[in-house]
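ugh ok fine here u go
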Amino acid sequence: MTGETPDSLIPYDEIVQEALRAVVGRVLGEVESTGHLPGEHHFYITFKTAAAGVEIPRHLSERFPDEMTIVIQNRFWDLKVGEDGFEVGLSFNQAPAKLIIPFSAITGFVDPAVNFALQFQAQTDEAGPQDHEQAENDHPIAVAEDGSNVVSVDFSRKK
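structure:
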């Protein structure tokens, strides 16, 4: 038996990524149905701004041409969660904006209140995420401490 792993005819990496993105949809759906965030929960959601289906104001796409992190915490409105994504109203520098984000564009989801995080590999970007400015619609991202509940999904194939 050789040490090589055969290529799978079943796209496990895509199936797992889709399932984990469904976690984000379910959590946001709970917030939509109740109309508020429970307890101290709040979310940092990072997404590819140029991904198919993403709709954000031009000034935001110019400022964040690759990736952007938003915060769902105190000031958000009109959260609507669908099968393939969500839309939300947020304020950037006192200006309201409506964002439409497909779940497939999400590269990270963090709930610092309970040290929970999901990270997704962008399927079209081989180089990995580039540095980007924070969206500044809320506080900066809290770095998870040791012992956090971080799930990192990396399906790099050895060649």
